Amino acid sequence: MSSVRNLLHAVESMEMIDLTHVLEEDMPVYPTHSRYFHTKWDSFETGSPALVCQLLINEHCGTHVDATGHFLKEGEPAHRYMAETPLEHCMGRALTLDFSSYEASDLVSRQEVLSWEREHFSIEEGDIVLFRFGWDRYWTPRSAGRTYTASWPGLSEEAAAYLASKKIKAVGCDTLAVDSSHSDGYPAHYQLLGNGITIFENLKGLERIAGESFFIGFPLKIKGGSGSPVRAVAWIPKNEARRLSVHHAEHQ
User: Fold this and answer.
1) Domain assignment of residue 125, yes or no
2) Cα(219)–Cα(91) distance, integer angstroms
3) Per-residue pLDDT in tens (0 to 9) along the chain, 252 residues
4) Rounded to two decimals, what is the model's pTM?
5) Residue 118's domain spans which residues?
6) In a domain, 202, yes or no
7) Distance (Å, rounded) from C-alpha 178 to C-alpha 155?
């Protein structure tokens, strides 16, 4: 069997999990960022043979990835714009850590990450580490409420520095930002991006991939871009998908 067929067989034996929020008007956005607009440009009703729409979107709308250039100036060693970010940094083995019991003012400590490793998997060089806070449960239209964007938990500077020391590829979370709304000065962003580690934010459904998975979140190839919307997905064995689904249903 060829290498391609072996890969196809492996993929077909697993379940693909979509970790991406729908892009739609009135969705939550970071308070200082521009909103998302989706406008009909031409349609069948106007005599066009096809429907065409125009998007107006901030690079950091919805489920997205931060390039290191989001916080690092040109000339800094780890600075990269989105088009320069290696795709390898957006795919790989992912480990999902569950901190869904956290309140908005809580920060994940270095010791808690170490404790998770002792109980589950060792974080290795080249991994992608995802943090589930369960904050996607608050993802609602802005007109219906602002809980998602009002406050959220995140990583402490010490936890981010520890992850950077492990030489991982990326960190992700199901909150508006990897830094808590209660953090001062974006310490986790600087620790991670400053060490060449990309950041995925506004993920969803991380309870479906608790533990180990294979993750992909490819960005648009934006020249000079500080970030990009992504379609984030992960693969897990089908028997593990069933187990996690049952476990989550029992704890609702």
Assistant:
1) yes
2) 11
3) 799 999 999 899 999 999 999 999 999 999 999 999 999 999 999 889 999 999 999 999 999 999 999 999 999 999 999 999 999 999 999 999 999 999 999 999 999 999 999 999 999 999 999 999 999 999 999 999 999 999 999 999 999 999 999 999 999 999 999 999 999 999 999 999 999 999 999 999 999 999 999 999 999 999 999 999 999 999 999 987 667 766 666 666
4) 0.94
5) 15-22+60-250
6) yes
7) 6
Cβ 97 vs Cβ 116: under 8 Å = yes
- What angle is formed at CA 235 by the lines to CA 139 and CA 89, rounded to 5 degrees? 80
Residue located via tokens 């060693």: 77
Q: Which helix (H) or strand (E) holds 149?
A: helix 147-150
CATH value at residue 71: 3.50.30.50
Query: Would residue 35 count as lying in a domain?
Result: no
Residue 28 lies in a domain: no
* Number of folded domains that form the chain: 1
Q: At what angle do helices 110-119 and 157-165 cross, to 10 degrees?
A: 50
